[in-house]
Amino acid sequence: MNSQSSIFDYSELGDMAPPTSTLDPLAVEEMSRLSIFHGYIGVFVIAFLTTLLVTPILRRLAIANGVIDHPDFERKEHKLPVAYLGGVAIYLGLLLAFAYSIFAPSGFLDPHPSEVRQSAVPFSVLLGMTLIMFVGLLDDMIGISPRIKISGQLLAAAALAMDDVGVKVAAGVLTPIARLIGVQENLLFTIDLPVTIPMFGAQIQIDVVYWVGTAIIAIFILGACNASNLIDGLDGLLTGVTSIAIAAMLVIALGLALVSDGPLDSARVIICLATLGACLGFLPHNFKPATIFLGDCGSMLLGFMTVVVILSLGDTGKTPLVVAGLLIYAVPIMDTTLAIVRRKMSGKPMSEPDDQHIHHLLKRSFGVTRAVFTLYGIGAVFGVLGILVSLGRARVAYVFALVLAAFIGVTAVKIARLKIFQEQAEAIANARRRAAQGAAPTRGAAKRPTRRSSEDPSPARPTIR
Which residues face 367 on adjacent strands? Predict the structure, then answer.
C-alpha cells in the first residue's frame, strides 16, 4: 500500500486525490475492510493517546478553577463533587487526530485506493465541533440559556449545510416520489423573475433536495446533541454507548470505502476512528467511579460527531444507510423520545430534569455498573441490527424504522401514563392518610372538634366538606 502514498494532495488543504493512473488493479482487488482499517489505524492511536493523557491535566485545571459538578443526592449517583472539562479532552483528541490525517508523513498513513477523488475531513466538521464544544464549555463554566445553546447548535448545522455535508440525505426518499408524480428527478426548479435582481439575476433556482436536506441536518444536530446530553446520567454510559455506535458505523463506513461510494469515504472512516479513539481514551477516567465528567461540552460534542457520521452515510443519496445509522443510535433516541412524551403528558417543561430516564430505571433495579452494561448490550444489539439493515434493501431499512418508531412511541405513552397513574394514586393515598390522622381538610376550614354531651365523652369527628 506504500505505493499509494501519492494519493494525498496537500496543495489543496489536505485533499486526497488518487489519480486513476496510479491505482494498482491488484491492490484494489485484494483490498478489504481490514486492510482499509489498517491504513488509517494511526488516526485511532493519536486520538486515543491524546485523550487518555490530556484528561488528568484537564481534571486538575477543572478542580483548580471550580469547574465541578455538585451532587444533588436525588438524580445523581456521585456523593462528592466531580470535575468537568472531559469534553475538552475529547475535543483535543479529535483535533490532533484530524491534523494527523492531513499532515502525517508518508508511511504513517496509508489511504485506500479509490476510484473517486477523496476529500480530507471537511472544514465544516471542524468548525461545527468547535462551536459545539465552546457553547457547551460556556454552559459548564458560567451557565447559559437554552436559547444560546440551541443557537450554537444551529450554527454548527448551518456550517455542515453550506459545505454540503449531509444535504443529500433526502435524495433517497424525494427522488422516488418525484419519479412517481412525474416531475424531474433532480428536483431542481428554475423560476423566471419579471425583473433582474442584483446578486440573483433574472432567475432563481430552487434545489428541493438541498433545502429539505438542510432542514434534516438542523433537526438531526439538535436532536443528537440533546439526546446525548440526556443520556449522560451514569458513569461511563454515554462514552461507552457512543463507542459502540461509532464502531458499528465504522463497519458500514469501511464497506462504503471498499466500493468507492463517494468523496467522503476516507473522511468518514477518519471521523469514525478519531471519535472511537477519543471515547476509549476517555472511558477509563469516566467509568465508575468517575474522576471526571464529560459536561455539556463533551456530551453535545459526542452527539454532534455521531450525527455527522450518520449524515455522511447518505452523502451519495443512500438514505437507507442513514436509517441504518439511526437504528444504531437507537438507545439515545429511545431515551429522548420517552422523556419528551413523559414530560408532555405530565404537563412539565421540556427542560425540567427528572429521574425517570431509562438509565435511572435500570439503576434502581440493577445498580450503576449493571445498568451501564445492560445499556451497552442493548446498544450492541442495535449496532448489529443497523449493520444488517445496511446490507439489505431500502425497503428493509424503512420497515425496521417503522417498527422501531412504533415500538418507541407506544412504550413512551405507556410509561408516561403509568407515571401519571402512580402520581395520582400517591396523591389519593396521601389525602386519605392525612384525613385518617385528622389533618386539615382539603377544601375550606374544619370545625374545631367539641364534646357532643357530658354523657358522651368521645370527641366529635372533624367535618370534611
Answer: none
Mean pLDDT of the chain: 78
pLDDT tops 50 at residue 362: yes
Q: Using alpha carbons, select from 46, 26, 38, 165 the residue that is nearest to residue 112.
A: 38
Place of cell 486515543: 48
CA distances in angstroms from 451 to 100, 265, 436, 441, 459, listed in the order given:
90, 89, 19, 20, 5
Residue found under cell 476512528: 273
Tell me the C-alpha distance between 437 and 439, whole Å.
Answer: 6
Q: What is the mean pLDDT of residues 23-28?
A: 46
Signed CA dihedral, 188, 192, 193, 196: sign only: positive
- pTM of the complete model: 0.77
SS (H, E, C) the chain: CHHHHHHEEHHHCCEECCCHHHCCHHHHHHCCHHHHHHHCHHHHHHHHHHHHHHHHHHHHHHHHCCCEECCCCCCCCCCCCEECCHHHHHHHHHHHHHHHHHHCCECCECCCCCCCCECCCCHHHHHHHHHHHHHHHHHHHCCCCHHHHHHHHHHHHHHHHHCCCCHHHHHHHHHHHHHHHCCCCCCEEEEEEEEEECCCEEEEEEEHHHHHHHHHHHHHHHHHHHHHHHHCCCCCHHHHHHHHHHHHHHHHHHHHHHCCCCCCHHHHHHHHHHHHHHHHHHHHHHCCCCCECCHHHHHHHHHHHHHHHHHHCCCCCCHHHHHHHHHHCHHHHHHHHHHHHHHHHCCCCCCCCCCCCHHHHHHHHHCHHHHHHHHHHHHHHHHHHHHHHHCCCHHHHHHHHHHHHHHHHHHHHHHHHHHHHHHHHHHHHHHHHHHHCCCCCCCCCCCCCCECCCCCCCECCCCCC
User: What is the reported pLDDT for 455?
Assistant: 43
Report CA torsion sign: 76, 351, 415, 325. Answer: negative
Residue 2 has pLDDT above 60, yes or no: no
Domain ranges within the chain, ordered by starting residue: 2-421
CB burial string 195-216: b at 16+ within 10 A, e below: eeeeeeeeeeeeebbbebbbeb
Cell for 308? 455527522
One-letter identity of residue 429: A
CA distance 98 to 109: 12
Q: What is the mean pLDDT of residues 395-424?
A: 71
- The residues, ordered by sequence, that sit 6+ positions from 425 with a Cβ below 8 Å of its Cβ are none
> 14: which residues sit within 8 A by CB, 6+ positions away?
8, 101, 102, 103, 120, 121
